Amino acid sequence: MSNPLTQTDIDQLEVFADRLFAKVGIDVEFTRHFLDRVNDQRNRKQITMAELTRMFKQEQKRWGKAIAKLGPDEEAVMKDLQTDLNIPFALRWDQKNNELDLIAKTVMRKKDFKTSNQEFAVEDRKIKDPMSKEVAVRGVGRYSLGGLQQNLAKKFADLAQRAATGEPSDFRQIQYLLNNGVIDAMMEGVIEAYDDLARQTIYRRKFGEEVDLENAPISTYDVKDMYEKWSTSYKKSIDCSNPKGFSQKAHCAGRKK
Fold it and tell me: Under a CB-based contact definition with an 8 Å cutoff, are residues 107 and 47 in contact?
């Protein structure tokens, strides 16, 4: 790679990123691997300081508060869709300094980088791959549609593995995971994303029209039962005169029965 970055460059980048994210109570750190990967031949084109400083500036401006709300022990990915840069990071609580550390683990220039972790993308452009569609999950955060599906698949696989053990403690954990609302919210996000894609002409042939509840292959009672674990406050907040997505429509249809 021509004009590779040095440790001094990364140190300067850390000072710059620290000043930006200090506004939301985050201290930024870079791993030693970050420097190795920033100059890696697999990037095809040298990653520059200008690209990195611009990326951190835009990430803090658009997603700073949302990243801070993730809290410790979470992992996610910063993405710049204009330069194809991806920075996977981890959040850790620094007890000594009483602050949240954002640890940039690595960096790579890779188009359509896939991850099951939450993504914080900047420089949105016209979606060509529907699986890259950004999905807002109620009370959880934002994912790409493909990443959200992968995350759900892992959760369902974990539930199946726990059920296979036959241990009472595992079934109690399954009950907790099904009742805490996270899986419901993620499922709702997936279905609403597909409903939205189905309404777009360029995707209609692939994803079809929205599901007609009157002719659905499963009864609205079954769907209502699936979402019976919604919190009372959330169910009351649903506007049945204008329900959003398949799950809310099914819920409202169940109310009328």
Answer: yes
